[in-house]
Design a protein that fits this description.
Number of domains: 2
Distance between the termini: 78 Å
Order of helices and strands: HHHH
Structural class: mainly alpha
Largest sheet: none
Shape: elongated
Oligomer: single chain
Strand content: under 5%
Low-confidence stretches: none
Radius of gyration: 27 Å
């Protein structure tokens, strides 16, 4: 008895199939045969593709700035941590001298 492993399509493949389904140049049944996936799966991918298409344009300006800001944020958090440790060390040293 051999165990059959499931084929998990990658996001690029799903997008390709969904985009072709949106174009409607071929029927979903034809696309299902061509790509070897079930027609209901293509309908799901198409719906998901259309539902999330607007997010591409919403995040257009944010993606470039958020990437740089997250790096800056990490840098600032690291500096805060260093300064906190330094402050605690110095305050402990002063407490011993008193």
């Amino acid at each position: 008895m051999t165990k059959k492993s499931r084929n998990r399509p990658d996001p690029a493949f799903k997008a390709k199939v969904a985009l072709e389904a949106v174009k409607e140049q071929q029927t979903v049944a034809e696309l299902a045969r061509r790509y070897g996936v079930h027609a209901s799966q293509i309908y799901k991918w198409k719906a998901q593709f259309l539902a999330q298409a607007a997010r591409v344009f919403d995040a257009e300006g944010e993606s470039a700035s958020s990437n740089g800001s997250s790096e800056r944020e990490q840098e600032l958090l690291q500096k805060i941590g260093e300064l906190t440790v330094e402050r605690d060390f110095l305050s402990n040293g002063l407490a011993r001298r008193r």
